[in-house]
Specification:
This protein has helices spanning 16-26, 31-46, 52-72, 78-93. The protein has a domain at 29-93. By secondary structure, the protein is mostly helical.
Amino acid sequence: MNITWTAYPDVNVTGFYTALQYYNSVTSDTFVLMMLLGIYMVFILMFSRFGMKRSFMTSSFIMFVISAALRMGGLVGDPLILLFGLCTALAMLL
């Protein structure tokens, strides 16, 4: 049985942004998405003492701003920004 081992490309990970780029390349662009969804859930729980409507709206807006900043760096796609923007608009209408 011949098993070959292939290492991931050796990259120079020197900061937070390059680490996110590397993790995203290793996990086929799902690492940042799962990280943002996890942070979103933490924000909802953190702001839940102000009521569910305000918690949902505040968390959605903060995640919209964070995902827009990550989009400028090319780490997330446009659908994620649209999702958080629509969640913010929906929470404002409730």
